[in-house]
Amino acid sequence: MTVPAGRRPETDPGAGAEPTARPDAGAEPTAGPDAGAEPTAGPDAGAEPTSGTASALLVIDMQNALVAIAHRASATVAAIAGLQARARAAGAPVILLQQQDGELEPGTDAWRIVPELAPAPADTVLPKTAPDGFLGTGLDTVLRDRGITEVVVSGFATEICVESTARQALSRGYDVVLVSDGHTTSVRPDGSGQYAAPEASVAHHNEIYRNLRFPGRRVRVLPAAEVGFRRGDVPGTP
User: How confident is the model at residue 34 (pLDDT cuts 50, 70, 90)?
Assistant: First the structure.
């Protein structure tokens, strides 16, 4: 895979990684809308979850080595930190996905989640080895065990792990909120290739999701300040 300078290619997906409660992993660029996804013109729905919705916050690959090369890093970290605080206050799950590969080796400083977004004791941290946050991570099981129907997607990198995970969430039956100011991509040094400028890439993906129609799913694009959370209930508990 050819990537801009400063961004690393993902490793091949490895064997399935099980969920872990270990605090504190990387990402990349991906293609545009999947085939078969039909655009529709229509405004975003309201910010608050609808009745019966149970939300979880996904924080993807906000690790030291990746945030160091991210566009609008400080602003994106601040937006996600606010989401974490509100999700925890609402009793909604906070799930941090953490890339691990040859350049993001577990236990190294590069691999660790940035301190501002460090997991709280009740949060879930899942290691991943591929752009798709569901692949071999146990994420789907974690969400279904908590009765989650909607995922709020944030993190790095817009075109790779964020896009891949959001699209997989829709395919697996979840509603999706893409946080318009809560995802980012790498900076684009001169000579890094024919990539869109980072601000253009973020805006492009936001616009795609504003106009994405997915049968039986609710897709919204909201700024972090407008995202609401509703607690899910574990099936079979009072």
Answer: very low
